[in-house]
TrEMBL record:
<dbReference type="InterPro" id="IPR036052">
    <property type="entry name" value="TrpB-like_PALP_sf"/>
</dbReference>
<dbReference type="Pfam" id="PF00291">
    <property type="entry name" value="PALP"/>
</dbReference>
<feature type="domain" description="Threonine synthase N-terminal">
    <location>
        <begin position="2"/>
        <end position="78"/>
    </location>
</feature>
<feature type="domain" description="Tryptophan synthase beta chain-like PALP">
    <location>
        <begin position="98"/>
        <end position="365"/>
    </location>
</feature>
<keyword id="KW-0028">Amino-acid biosynthesis</keyword>
<keyword id="KW-0456">Lyase</keyword>
<dbReference type="InterPro" id="IPR037158">
    <property type="entry name" value="Thr_synth_N_sf"/>
</dbReference>
<dbReference type="InterPro" id="IPR001926">
    <property type="entry name" value="TrpB-like_PALP"/>
</dbReference>
<dbReference type="Pfam" id="PF14821">
    <property type="entry name" value="Thr_synth_N"/>
</dbReference>
<keyword id="KW-0663">Pyridoxal phosphate</keyword>
<keyword id="KW-0791">Threonine biosynthesis</keyword>
<dbReference type="InterPro" id="IPR004450">
    <property type="entry name" value="Thr_synthase-like"/>
</dbReference>
<dbReference type="InterPro" id="IPR000634">
    <property type="entry name" value="Ser/Thr_deHydtase_PyrdxlP-BS"/>
</dbReference>
<protein>
    <recommendedName>
        <fullName>Threonine synthase</fullName>
        <ecNumber>4.2.3.1</ecNumber>
    </recommendedName>
</protein>
<comment type="similarity">
    <text>Belongs to the threonine synthase family.</text>
</comment>
<comment type="pathway">
    <text>Amino-acid biosynthesis; L-threonine biosynthesis; L-threonine from L-aspartate: step 5/5.</text>
</comment>
<dbReference type="InterPro" id="IPR029144">
    <property type="entry name" value="Thr_synth_N"/>
</dbReference>
Length: 433
């Protein structure tokens, strides 16, 4: 299997090269040259996720140096449960796919751990520098997945004042080979800095830069696998065998991963991309034209994205992006959904997951009732305790992993959103290492 750039100006590369490069040299994103098709009858429900994932992803690794390592990589990355729970009881046709039982309490743990497991097997002598921009959750997951590894060091850029107190703690608590950098700007500024760093061949080579954002295919592959796994599990629960999915979307990595899983043969029905008040995707869906906008801050901060980088990949899917709708849920509706679902059913959503739950409520009754729907529950509500607790009127228990983070010391660097400052910081960090 070979991988090509969405912009068509890069010679095809192997999977290892695509992971190592992060972004294609022409500025585009890597896509598989052809979408592999699975025979759905070979993928029954009830299989453990790690084994399922390795089989689902095998075509992407075909002919790559990492092919022989795929089972081990999946065994390393998929070590925590992904329950499909019935938040409103078995009789109501909504399931929550709880993706937050990993070490940093968000689905980003899958991608970060999978990617780092790949880097461990690719790095060679000198460590890679994993440069990541985060709107809140990626950075913590990448830091946690990178800390203590010899193959990589992590440099994580996050927007000042835009992440929750717990998220900041989780970004800044790793130390050792992980550096947290607070940028005076928003997430799109952080993302632009990362892209600019990759676009500088000298800087990129000197630091062996690579990306751990969802622009890197290695972040998305494990998501393709768990989306497919969840689809088979949900399909086996009844309905018409093609469950619908509601995906809280920001940078559109998750949404793309689900659409790719569907294009490969996973039993996925209609897909709702649910966004916060950042309306780039809604405008695209309504007008057919894509125009990036400045991002605005919302309660679901990991989705505060005005220029979703994976849009390019979704567009490249062509027909694969059929049966997709967009639902916009503003802060007031997020608050209402968290409070109402707790009061009526005792289930606690994080602000991102509440967007998916609200999008389900807004489906027209026939569409809602004709099939089972799966809402991606993308983060543990404890990560957003200062938002959620006042709405539900009680304290949220952290998982043991999240509680442990509260005890770690923190440290950060600070820069303006300017390339020379990032370059200087990278040099200085390398001398220190
Ligand atoms: C990153 C994130 C999202 C958005 O996912 P994308 O792949 O960027 O669309 C949603 N919810 C949470 C909790 C996240 O951390």
């Amino acid at each position: 299997m070979r991988f090509v750039s969405t912009r068509g100006d890069t010679a095809p590369v192997s999977l290892s090269q695509a992971l190592r490069l992060g972004v294609a040299p022409d500025g585009g994103l890597f896509m598989p040259e052809a979408i592999p098709l699975h025979e759905p009858s070979k993928f029954a429900a009830g299989r453990p996720l790690a084994a399922f994932a390795a089989d689902w992803l095998r075509p992407f690794f075909d002919g790559d140096p990492l092919a022989g390592e795929l089972d081990a990589i999946c065994a390393e990355a998929f070590t925590f449960p992904v329950p499909l729970v019935a938040p409103f009881g078995d009789d109501v046709g909504l399931r929550a796919l709880e993706l937050f039982h990993g070490p940093t309490g968000a689905f980003k743990d899958f991608g970060a751990r999978f990617l780092m497991a790949c880097f461990d097997r690719l790095a060679g002598e000198e460590p890679l520098t994993v440069l990541a921009a985060t709107s809140g959750d990626t950075g913590g997951a990448v830091g946690c997945a990178a800390v203590g590894r010899r193959s990589s060091r992590g440099v994580i850029l996050y927007p000042r004042g835009r992440v929750s107190p717990f998220q900041e703690r989780q970004l800044t608590c790793w130390g050792a080979n992980v550096t947290a950098v607070e940028v005076d700007g928003d997430f799109d500024d952080c993302q632009a800095l990362v892209k600019a760093a990759f676009a500088d061949p000298q800087l990129s080579a000197a630091h062996r830069l690579t990306s751990a954002n969802s622009i890197n295919l290695g972040r998305l592959l494990p998501q393709v696998a768990y989306c497919a796994h969840a689809a088979f599990e949900a399909a086996a629960l009844g309905g018409d065998g093609r469950p619908g999915f509601l995906i809280p979307s920001g940078n559109l990595g998750h949404g793309f991963a689900l659409l790719l899983a569907r294009a490969m043969g996973a039993p996925v029905g209609p897909v709702v991309l649910a966004t916060n008040a950042n309306r780039t995707l809604l405008d695209w869906h309504q007008s057919g034209r894509y125009a990036a906008r400045p991002s605005i801050a919302t309660l679901a901060n990991a989705m505060d994205v005005g220029a979703p980088s994976n849009f390019e990949r979704v567009a490249a899917l062509g027909d694969g992006a059929a049966e997709v709708t967009v639902e916009l849920v503003d802060d007031e509706a997020i608050r209402h959904r968290i409070a109402a679902d707790y009061r009526e059913n005792g289930y606690v959503w994080c602000p991102h997951s509440a967007i998916a739950a609200e999008a389900w409520r807004r489906l027209a009754a026939p569409a809602r009732d004709e099939r089972l729907w799966v809402a991606a529950a993308t983060a543990h509500p404890f990560k957003f305790a200062e938002i959620v607790e006042p709405l539900i009127g009680r304290e949220i228990e952290p998982s043991p992993a999240l509680a442990a983070i509260d005890d770690r010391p923190t440290a950060k660097q600070q820069i303006a959103a300017r390339m020379p400052e990032l370059a200087a910081l990278l040099d200085q960090q390398r001398v220190a290492a």
